[in-house]
Amino acid sequence: MATNLSAAPQPQLTVPQFKESVLKHLHSTLGTYEEKASQQAWNQAIAAAINEFVYDGVSRTRKTHAGKGTRAVHYLSLEFLMGRLMSNNLQNLGLYEIADAAMTDLGQSLSDILEEEPDMALGNGGLGRLAACFIDSMATLSLPAIGYGIHYEHGLFRQEFYKGRQVERPDEWREFGSSWEICRPESQQTVKLYGYVETVYEQGQSRKVWRPSRTLRAIPWDIPIVGYGGQNVNILRLWESRADKFFDWDVFNSGGYLDAYAESVQAETVSKVLYPNDETEAGKELRLIQQYFFSAASIADVMRRYKSAHGNDLSKFAELNAMQLNDTHPAIAIPELMRILVDEEGFTWHDAWTMTRATFAYTNHTLLPEALERWPLKLIEKVLPRHMEIIFEINSRFLQDEVEAKWPGDDAVKRKLSIIEEGSAQMVRMGNLSAVGSHTVNGVAQIHSELVKKDLFPELNALWPTKFTNVTNGITPRRWMKACNPRLSSLIEKHVDADWPRYLEKLSGLKALADDAAFQKDYMAVKQANKEDFVKVIRELTGIEVSADAIFDVQIKRLHEYKRQHLNLLHIMALYRRLLIDPNYDLHPRVFIFGAKAAPGYRLAKEIIFAINKVAEKINNDVRINNKLKVVFLPNYRVSLAEKLIPASDVSEQISLAGKEASGTGNMKLALNGAITIGTMDGANIEIAEEAGTDNVVIFGMEVDDVEALLAKGYQPADYYRSNDELKAVLDWLDGDFFTPGEPGLLSEVKRNLIESDSFMVLADFEAYSEAQKKIDTLYRDKKAWARAAIMNTASLAKFNSDRSIQDYAENIWHIKAVPAKS
Ligand SMILES: *Cc1c(COP(=O)(O)O)cnc(C)c1O
């Protein structure tokens, strides 16, 4: 891979020039002036100044790639959790310091102005954030790549707490427009829906013609993705749905003026809102339409670009185009490409199938059964009648030609592998469709990829032993260190080459300093300063006073039973109880910090939020415990909040039940910024421990084998409740009104669930977790040992650079090469 970026980005202009550019845009783009401009206007003026470079990069990169005959990758994802773009773009262009100085000269604060930018939260959690890190890395590595997704009008809901309970409010990220997107009406597409399939006979041949009854327009909005160094600027293309104007005019002309608007409202509903479910399938017709809408528009876009460069001969299509499915959400792209090749382009089934399989690869993100997408056959038949026929054909050929050849006469294996699940209502298994229609299937961490082969698709793995592989997830060090932790970045820069954000392995140079007293002092001073900053954030957001001398113990991720925030809660209650029993109980002061949104329809998750908030209220106001314990649940956890909290974190809670967290990426962000992981042998925790050294993380609890053995034996959570006095006491505490004065039983549902079902074995791991937390407490008191462990984490995380993940995909799955944009 070309590595022409040997140094950090060079600033392309001076402070006075940047100032001049901002003022020019303030006057002539925004129509205001220095004395009158709002923070928002300054923000827009800076964005306009930055965009002069960005758009120049976009056209330079496009020109380089256009008609080049180089293979490109198309990353299809229903979610892109981008966060804010301004500070990242400034960093990647090497303009941050320049802009900072320019704004100071103008009597403004760049960091305050950055706060004006709303998060672009077009995703739920890890999966969407991964897509965002990946497109940053693809641009940085100069790969010909496009991200494709949906231009949701409303991203993930804003979370507020009312009397301790989560309340969802609409997200308005585009209320006043966005500085970073550019509409490309010339590239709009039409997407068809519903209707019926006709068989047409011509010259003794029959062919299928889909007669859709509904069409939508797909309007592309392009977000420039600035690679580190600014040389390459790729795009993220997000589709907005609109009513098809031709369709509308019919209704309009026949006098149905209001009906025409009703039609438009329905069409625009498609890109209206992101489904807020993480790790559960929604099963709604609108969601299926969203999936098809962006898949079909994206394939049409790829097809249009191919034809404009190579004409109507599609024989090189698969050679020049790779498509990556980020989970099964875009799986309908597989039958869509088949439909285009067979029905519209006249390929034989065999040739079309060869091309389709050579084009697609699929990333699996979860083994949780509730998250594996299955659509009712009847629903696909109604919305996409031709696609349903194609799925039947894919399935019957797969079962007859491939499964029958391997396991002759074995109906049980056919039933298991079939894309169609039989039952009272037939269902289409999107995971099976994705695996059958792709040349490569990957999991997202070593253990997860092994479980995909062993537990999810064992027969498919036997059938195609080379199809399944692993690509461990990563995070971009530009956002998750360089931009979010300027203090640590400048300390690092005193000791390693300035291009470490590109070549993260250079941080291994810090290992030699892990025991150096002066470096330890500097490193921990950075952490302390970051914590002091965050004390203010906590105060502003919650009114809670905490001390920066306490251990900041952080669990930030979606609220889900498998992630086990309630295990953390039970341990907090146990510590509180110990302090009440013995006010001299030896505990280093600790602040437990949570950030988590629950899916609006996920009852138990919302009960857990409520319980944490109620326990927090009691603990934070109990003078008896002398401020040794604080619990902070930050509202509205999102990328921009993560960027402030992660640099200030001491402990990283990664406590999912072994086998359930596919990879995790929050674990990587926290470890890179020097937080010590307390975690189970799950997902990428295992690889983090391997890289950082097992002495520098605290691992506890059951492993996958233990979980399987306990399940086989028959898990009885009530046994743990009865046999551990402390566990029993804290669970019983949830029943009374201690935490909900005058209203007993409000928290009982959490207890009842744990004793009666406890699907994720919280009670079985409680004791081991509690012991592991004592190790954290002991380690933290040994200042040198703690500093050493934190430094070793920062110095050892190169593997989790998303550039490395993308390099793996590029070399082993996409087989594409870098094409650096020419200056
Ligand atoms: C990284 C990130 C996640 C994923 O966190 P996990 O701990 O891996 O689940 C979720 N949400 C946001 C805002 C993130 O930045």
TrEMBL record:
One of its GO terms (molecular function) is glycogen phosphorylase activity. One of its GO terms (biological process) is glycogen catabolic process. It is an enzyme of class 2 (transferase). Signal peptide: none annotated. The modification N6-(pyridoxal phosphate)lysine is found at residue 669. Its cofactor is pyridoxal 5'-phosphate. It catalyses: [(1->4)-alpha-D-glucosyl](n) + phosphate = [(1->4)-alpha-D-glucosyl](n-1) + alpha-D-glucose 1-phosphate. Phosphorylase is an important allosteric enzyme in carbohydrate metabolism. Enzymes from different sources differ in their regulatory mechanisms and in their natural substrates. However, all known phosphorylases share catalytic and structural properties. This is Alpha-1,4 glucan phosphorylase.
